[in-house]
Specification:
It comes from Phyllobacterium sophorae. By secondary structure, the chain is mostly helical. It has eight helices and no strands.
Length: 158
């Protein structure tokens, strides 16, 4: 699965302009903001969810230290300032093909299940994002089932 995640993030074009912050049009920022949004949807910020978002972004882009912190901080701030999901989903839809958009929904489910369960509000956020980026109900549910199975297996291995 990690290979799919790395491939997904590497497929995103870099919109970073060398400045102190990531550009609002950078797909990596949009992805990070949406991952923060789904993480916070249930009103509980679990450390394991935050760690999972950080881990996914770090591994995919090879970001560490200040660069990773900057993308996480910028993504979180962008999510907090957003009035809707469209500003992020339009960037994702514009920059990713269908397969990559489906993989993104899978990543969202991985964040949802990082704490061991899916809250109905998290489910709703993933559904809305999937609709906005053109991922079918069937693909969304399939990705949910895969992520739930991986989460269950991870718990059993511990």
């Amino acid at each position: 699965m990690l290979d799919r995640i790395v491939t997904f993030f590497k497929s995103l074009p870099s919109g970073e302009n060398g400045k102190e912050h990531f550009s609002r049009n950078d797909p990596r920022l949009a992805a990070a903001a949406l991952l923060f949004h789904v993480m916070d949807a249930d009103g509980e910020r679990d450390k394991v969810e935050r760690k999972r978002v950080s881990q996914l972004i770090s591994e995919a882009y090879g970001l560490k230290g200040e660069a990773l912190k900057r993308l996480l901080d910028d993504g979180e701030q962008a999510d907090q300032e957003a009035v809707d999901l469209y500003s992020f989903t339009s960037i994702i839809k514009r920059n990713l093909d269908e397969e990559a958009r489906i993989r993104f929904i899978e990543l969202m489910w991985d964040v949802v299940f990082a704490d061991g369960s899916a809250h109905e509000l998290e489910d709703n956020v993933v559904w809305r994002v999937a609709e906005l980026i053109g991922v079918s109900t069937r693909d969304r549910v399939t990705m949910k089932q895969k992520a739930a199975l991986r989460a269950k297996q991870a718990v059993q291995e511990e």
